[in-house]
Write a structure and sequence with these properties.
4-stranded parallel β-sheet, RNA-binding, alpha/beta, elongated, 4-stranded antiparallel β-sheet, Rossmann fold, 3 domains
Length: 502
RNA sequence: GGUCCUGUGGCCGAGUGGCUAGGCAAAGCUCUGCAAAAGCUUCUACAGCGGUUCGAAUCCGCUCGGGACCUCCA
């Protein structure tokens, strides 16, 4: 069964066929590094990280490009606009690139903690001004853009007229019809320069106080928002590439504009498959700046936010996101996050036991043929579910059914020989593959060189002795005080003891 | 106003017309010196109304509710 993905462009699930197999080009819209990433931002990066990992697992050689938007009208969130503050304030303020660096570092830190693999290329808008200018020049030359007072605008009307004939009207991705949206245009600066309200900027003239500015054929200015993705995807992935991803809220106008620009420039639709993740909501409403309901990732990690009952680890968040399908909305809530935290712990403990301690003691024949078949079925469906538009939720559901079996064997409720040797080894292998390599889950316990383990082992030994003497005062003291420190001891059936931290 | 999406048990959340999704929470049992952990069992829901069908959470219609985009937005 081949991989199928839902293509927003065609509005259906389609088999994924790369243009130049085994090479796959994937472009995902990255963040604007003028502020901190919030919980909502985590979703696309985790979703496409899992897709990236899965494509590699399928044997594709993937070039994953995810940009950083570090140019444009740049102000730190919450600050007043540059032109409104005095010279002195400017001196005390960060340089624009200092700001970019600060938030880029923070973003990388968060991506790392969420265990997202770094993309193959992470280009910046400011590093590709020349490419953007070249592209704009070409669009002007072809007659689809015009200059006005040092700014350049894309002529949406003309594009729509000409390309509708070719079956590619403006609005093809979002399903919008240009004629339908003549009204309700936002009051923007310099709106009067546009020939039509739906035209969008390719290049903007920089007012004198604007710090980020570049020389261009149209005077000093800075690139429009949409052109950077077109220029950078073209440069690194070519005129036509396989996958373009991003949040659903970017479908219009951002991706629509990209399609228009790139199509004029390259005479082809830039990407074959357009994948969009849905939003994370909070009390049913989209989490976003404009709604004033964001929880930053740093706040998620440290629990320092009025809406948070506690801190949630990066991997709890990753797991939380993987438990739903990427195209549905996902509602934030402390109950839901706490459920994820516990579930992840249970999954991880079973997984750790399987990979490190479960022995392949059984023979080739399974003592319990039904159970053996069930395990093989559950494991075999991992790929099947992923191939069905990345249904990570279903894969996790299967994993939890396996967890029950694993724990039953671990606790000797059912004999280890219930499963055949080959089934056990397939189980080990597939869990490793999906839990760690594809889903990117991992342990959060810090590596302490085994010193802590030695100390705990000592306490466990003392407790065992106490228990043998029936000195429950001592044994309970050790157990209770360790719990207070966040270390939980577990007495196992065979008289052994183990512990978990956290 | 336009274009769409959506409404699943206490919470989150899968779900291709007929078969227990799963997780968390809750209750009981087993195990345990007592716990914890784990296992087993229970709780079996699909907004409402109508229609199609042998059969609908799943298809169609209407009603009510929620949301997204149309503007920076993951």
């Amino acid at each position: 069964m081949p991989l199928k993905v839902y293509n927003s462009l065609t509005r259906k699930k389609e088999e994924f066929i790369p243009i130049n197999s085994p090479y796959v080009g994937m472009y995902v819209c990255g963040p604007t590094v003028s502020g901190e990433s919030h919980l909502g931002h985590a979703r696309p990066y985790i979703t496409f990280d899992v897709l990236y990992r899965y494509l590699m697992h399928l044997g594709y050689k993937v070039r994953y490009v995810r940009n950083l938007t570090d140019a444009g009208h740049f102000e730190e969130e919450g600050r007043e606009a540059e032109d409104k503050i005095s010279k002195k304030a400017i001196l005390e303020k960060l340089e624009p690139m200092e700001l970019v660096q600060k938030y880029t570092n923070l973003y990388h830190w968060a991506m790392n903690r969420l265990n997202n693999l770094p993309p193959s290329i992470e280009p910046t808008a400011t590093g590709h001004i020349i490419e953007q200018i070249e592209m704009i020049k070409k669009i002007i030359a072809d007659g689809y853009a015009y200059e006005a007072n040092g700014s350049v605008y894309f002529d949406v009307e003309k594009y729509n007229t000409d390309f509708s004939k070719k079956g590619q009207p403006y609005g093809i991705l979002s399903g919008r019809i240009l004629e339908d949206q003549l009204d309700s245009t936002r009051e923007l600066d310099n709106q009067g320069e546009k020939r039509d309200p739906s035209d969008f900027a390719l290049w903007k003239n920089a007012p004198p106080e604007h710090i980020m500015r570049w020389q261009s054929p149209w005077g000093e200015g800075f690139p429009g928002w949409h052109i950077e993705c077109s220029a950078m995807s073209k440069k690194y992935l070519g005129d036509e590439f396989d996958i373009h991803g991003g949040g659903m809220d970017l479908q219009f106008p951002h991706h629509e504009c990209e399609i228009a620009q790139s199509t004029v420039c390259n005479h082809t639709m830039p990407a074959r498959y357009w994948l969009h993740n849905n939003m994370i909501t909070i009390n049913g409403k989209k989490m976003g700046k404009s709604y004033n309901n964001v929880i930053k990732l740093t706040e998620m990690f440290n629990g320092n936010h009025p809406m948070l009952a506690q801190a949630y680890s990066p991997l709890t968040i990753r797991f939380f996101i993987l438990q739903s399908h990427y195209r549905g909305t996902l509602d934030f809530g402390n109950d839901a996050l706490q459920a994820s935290e516990k579930a992840l712990k249970r999954l991880w403990e079973a997984y750790e036991w399987v990979s490190s301690e479960m022995l392949v003691v059984s023979g080739e024949l399974a003592a319990d043929k039904l159970l053996d078949a069930k395990v093989l079925k559950l494991v075999g469906e991992f790929d099947e579910f992923m191939n069905d538009d990345l249904n990570t939720a279903k894969v996790l559901a299967n994993m939890f059914e396996l967890v029950s079996v694993i724990n039953a064997i671990k606790d000797k409720h059912i004999p280890a020989a219930s499963l055949s040797a080959s089934t056990v080894s397939i189980l080990k292998q597939q869990l490793k593959l999906f839990v760690e390599d594809i889903f990117g889950l991992k342990t959060e316990q810090a590596n302490d060189n085994g010193k802590l383990d030695g100390v705990l082992q000592l306490l466990i030994d003392i407790r065992k002795e106490a228990k043998t003497r029936k000195d429950f005062v001592t044994s309970d003291k050790i157990r209770n005080e360790l719990i207070a420190l966040g270390v939980q001891l577990k007495d196992e059936k065979d008289g052994g003891m183990s512990y978990t931290i956290g």
